[in-house]
Structures are given as structure tokens and as C-alpha cells.
């Protein structure tokens, strides 16, 4: 059991030191109180755009994705039609994005 705990801790430390994409969902009274934030590969064709991760974030809340270096799309959407799309390239370090949802 103690080896499992030690291995899990060591694995997390190695993974947590890679590049990250983080952001904050800024408040907008025209949008829902929460939104889904999606991380996918940066591909124009939706059949090639692999969804990697997603999370639900309340207005004013934050998120963080641990990624490999590469090109990604960060998308946001809510239940009443507000949207966000940002294409990013990350090589190392942390990329911090303000997410502003816009009613379409």
C-alpha cells in the first residue's frame, strides 16, 4: 500500500510540472451562471478535432488543463447560446486566458 501511495505521488509531481493552459470565466449578465470549457486539438475539420478535456466552470471561476506542447482550441459554451473560441499554441510554461463568453 505504501508503494502505491509513493508511486502515485511521484507520478503526479512529474505530470504537474508540464505546460498548462488556465483561465478565468469572466462574469457576463447576458450568459448563464456556468459554462462548459472544452480543450481540443486545433483542427478545422470537426472530425479531426479530438476532444481532450472539458470542465464546467461557474462565472468568476477558474480552470487549468495540463497539456503537452502543441496547438489547441479552447472553447466555451453555455445552455443559452453564449460562446467562446480561442486558438492557442503552447511550448512551455503557463498560458493564462481571460474567458469572455459572448451571446451569438
Description:
The mean pLDDT is 86. The longest helix has 15 residues, at 2-16. By secondary structure, this protein is mainly β. It starts with a helix and ends with a strand. The strands form two sheets. It has a five-stranded antiparallel β-sheet with strand order 3-2-5-6-8, with no helix packed on it. It has one domain: Carboxypeptidase-like, regulatory domain (Immunoglobulin-like), CATH 2.60.40. A hairpin with a 4-residue loop joins strand 5 and strand 6. The chain has one helix and eight strands, in the order αββββββββ.
Quickly give the CATH architecture.
Answer: Sandwich
As a percent range, the share of helical residues equals 10-25%
- Overall CATH class: Mainly Beta
Largest sheet: 5 strands, antiparallel
N-to-C order of helices and strands:
HEEEEEEEE
Provide the β-strand percentage band: over 45%
Radius of gyration: 16 Å
User: What is the average per-residue confidence, as pLDDT, rounded to a whole number?
Assistant: 86
| Count of discrete domains | 1
Amino acid at each position: 500500500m505504501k508503494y502505491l501511495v509513493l508511486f502515485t505521488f511521484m507520478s503526479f509531481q512529474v505530470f504537474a510540472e508540464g505546460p498548462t493552459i488556465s483561465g478565468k470565466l469572466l462574469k457576463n449578465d447576458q450568459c448563464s451562471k456556468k459554462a462548459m470549457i472544452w480543450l481540443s486539438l486545433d483542427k478545422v475539420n470537426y472530425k479531426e478535432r479530438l476532444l481532450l478535456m472539458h470542465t464546467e466552470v461557474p462565472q468568476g471561476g477558474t480552470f487549468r488543463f495540463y497539456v503537452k506542447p502543441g496547438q489547441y482550441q479552447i472553447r466555451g459554451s453555455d445552455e443559452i447560446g453564449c460562446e467562446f473560441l480561442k486558438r492557442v499554441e503552447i511550448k512551455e510554461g503557463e498560458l493564462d486566458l481571460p474567458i469572455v463568453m459572448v451571446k451569438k
